[in-house]
Amino acid sequence: MDANLLKILIAASLIAASGGMLGSLALLRRMALVGDALSHVALPGVALGILFHFNPFLGALAFLVFGTFAIWAVEHKTKLPVDTLVGVLFTVALAVGALLTPREDILDALFGDISNISSLDFWLASIASIIIIILLLVFYKKFTLSLISPDLALASGQKPHMLELLFLMIFAFAVAVGIKFTGALLMGSLIIIPAATARNFARSMNQYLTFSALLGVFGAILGVLVSYFYGFSPGPAFVLFSGAIFFISIFFRR
Amino acid sequence: MPILEVKKLSVRYGEQSILDDISFDLEKGDTLAIIGPNGSGKTTLLRAILGAISYEGEIIFTLQTRIGYVPQKIDLERDLPITVQEFLLLKSAQKKSSAYSPHQALEMVNLSANFLKKRLGELSAGELQRVLIAWAVIDRPSLLLFDEPTASVDVAGQETVYELLHRLHDKYDLTLILISHDLTVVYRYASKVLCLNREQVCYGAPSEVLTPKELEKLYGGGHKFYHHIHEKT
Hints:
A: ABC transporter involved in vitamin B12 uptake, BtuC; globular; B: alpha/beta; Rossmann fold
């Protein structure tokens, strides 16, 4: 196996594993579409990176961290209607990103392309994904409790608002990393699909978290291999495979 | 020495006063029932004691007071993939030494070990309520807050939730605060009663303060309650 393919497989697997785990927690509170909407905020950052020749990952991360913090602050510090504001903010970001992104780069920015991953990006994506996985494992119990019942979390002395901010920041980080793989438009798939599939047959949190990560990795490997040998784009290939597994899993719902 | 002292507690949302000038205290082993009509601020009072909302006035605990809280209900999605065991273990993440194992906590609420592997979504309302009580008592609280236990009867042939609470109260020397609509329960189990209607309408031993006159003041038109009390006492 050539070294480049191995690099792509490792990066894609780690990204998908962290996305899957994150998704399993996000789906506890029906936050599936947050990842989807949030990923749009990254686009102007990606565009600026391309235009001014710095790493688009950093641009995406900066915009995502700002966007997430803005949502969190609006939700907890003001009385503005959050979902309306998020809808407006995110579509505006998408439009700005679409205008700024050079025409020849727009497809990569929207749908991702991990097949030309640079050494730097490989290390960035891999290390960031590992950090995300570790953070999720460390805070897994606290996140779970505050996601399934904020009231009980509060009564147990947690600070649900701060945990939520931490969770959203990890989310932003994961989206910034995942964009290289699936692009801004398909980013939600990394978070939603493996977790939604795992939920159909997991009988415990342990299984749910493990299956989500493994299904992400499985879809990523299939997607990368098929795209490598048949010349598809890896992001959409991942989505198609994972989507197919999800629809099959519906019939095996426990 | 009281384990909980509440002095001149007031809660406001904007202009609206939810609770006004509430004062009471609890000794170890007390059972305080909070009664009052809907919207009288009962749950708000519990939330203030939990520290979940901001308030004016003072809420003073003795140092060792550890609070367990049983919510009226939790909104769980039915297909949530979490087992009772995993749920009970979530709490040990919050505090270093959880006093009881999930198994022991279930025993305390009369549920068998088979329930450890069941998912929360598979439980009946009565079973879920018992699991929530197990959740509240698992780390040996000294003060238990209970928001309006509905007496679920679907755990056949077992003690009611009030009998369960009463047993825990006696056996583990708990201090209880419970919200209740049921005056029978208040008479049978409470050592103190606090009548709320945004402000403190009455406070003291049930037999002294729950007079038809007070109840009429609290609920308006106390005729029904008068009969109710006589039937049951």
